[in-house]
Specification:
The chain is an all-alpha fold. It has 14 helices and no strands. It is globular.
Length: 371
């Protein structure tokens, strides 16, 4: 079957691929360059006192460098190690109070279902009629799931990989950038660089507990083949340790900042290989979809606030179509119910990646060859 090609794209944006031979000088230099660029961007954002400076600064700097042709590269293993740190951090926000709000959680899942189905319906229309994509590619471009998961599932089902990668990469990028900036400058919600005091060191006993949560959580989650194992396993173990009172500490600030730089750099490096000057239309289509998706979320969050009494900020963060780690960090920086937000994000990502291919099989669609 002939494959469609997206003009101007030299190589699709993709999750950083696993690297087994870090001794290769060229590859090692590219990774080092990416870390340096990301750290510099984070430092500039911190100096400007912007929200989530280390993650957003790294993301912006590496993305810009990649689009300008710099050889940005990050490894999946490196991202996974830093995801463990963020999982332990997010788990430290869980308290027994979360169980007392199961009713609110169930109600939120109803709002989430409305958002997912509405976004996919809107996306199908947009990608079919505006972007002129085939219906299989349009379907999987519309799904508000995790970046890597939707790429893998969509390609396996026959979606055009380059358009699929670009649509989801820009969606995640725009959400991670727009949501914290909106809360800082547009929604009149106070923000802080870290809700908790910036702890540079913690007692060795508590440090040992946190390390054990990270290592054991990642190991167990990997053995049971849980999706996003480096994040979800450590978060679950850390949540159990903090709910039980085993420890009250979170990872130190310097380690969290390093993890944020890595997370931003990994996201920005997905754009390596794209020439900005020659993919203008494709980027414009992806950007337009991101704006529509965030607009739909904002409208639904406002409706849920007025009709059901939900907190606007909680709805926005809990259902924002980006990664769980990024939105969890935004919630933490804003002091907005991080445990609740993280829980709903896990459910969103899991349900979309499970239900999207199942519904697709029921529809019986196949990708048509271009005429």
């Amino acid at each position: 079957m002939p494959k469609t090609r997206l003009r101007g794209v030299r190589k699709p944006p993709q999750c950083a691929r696993p690297v087994t031979d870090l001794a290769q000088p060229q590859l090692a230099l590219r990774i080092l360059l990416t870390i340096v660029v990301g750290s510099a961007g984070g430092a500039v954002f911190a100096w400007l006192k912007l929200p989530l400076p280390w993650m957003l600064g790294s993301l912006c700097a590496v993305t810009l460098a990649a689009l300008m042709g710099a050889p940005m590269r990050f490894t999946q293993r490196g991202r996974s190690v830093m995801a463990v740190v963020l999982g332990v951090l997010l788990g430290s926000t869980f308290t027994p109070d979360l169980f007392a709000r199961l009713g609110s959680l169930l109600s939120m899942l109803g709002v989430l279902a409305i958002y997912v189905f509405a976004s996919m319906a809107l996306g199908m229309g947009y990608f079919l009629w505006i972007a002129k994509q085939d219906r299989v590619t349009a379907y999987f471009c519309s799904a508000p799931g995790g970046f890597a998961e939707m790429i893998l599932v969509g390609e396996a089902m026959g979606a055009e990989p380059r358009q699929l990668s670009l649509a989801h990469a820009v969606r995640v990028l725009m959400t991670v950038l727009a949501v914290p900036l909106w809360f800082r400058y547009g929604a009149d919600i106070p923000s802080s660089d870290m809700v908790r005091p910036m702890v540079l060191a913690i007692p060795w006993q508590d440090g040992g507990i946190l390390v054990a949560c990270g290592v054991a959580g990642w190991f167990v989650a990997s053995r049971i083949k849980l999706g996003a194992a480096p994040m979800l396993g450590p978060m679950a173990f850390s949540a159990a340790a903090h709910i039980s009172g085993l420890t009250e500490f979170a990872p130190p600030f310097w380690l969290v900042a390093a993890a944020q730089v890595a997370l931003g750099a990994a996201a920005g490096a997905r754009f390596a290989g794209l020439a900005l000057a020659v993919v203008g239309r494709a980027l414009a289509i992806a950007l337009g979809w991101s704006v529509l998706l965030l607009g739909l979320l904002a409208a639904l969050a406002k409706a849920a606030e007025h009709l059901a009494g939900f907190d606007y900020a909680v709805v926005m963060l809990a259902m924002a179509p980006a990664g769980m780690a990024e939105m969890g960090l935004v919630a933490l920086a804003l002091g907005i119910d991080t445990a609740f937000v993280s829980t709903v994000q896990v459910i969103r990502l899991t349900s979309v990646v499970v239900l999207t291919p199942s519904l697709f099989r029921l529809l019986g669609w196949k990708r048509e060859a271009p005429s």
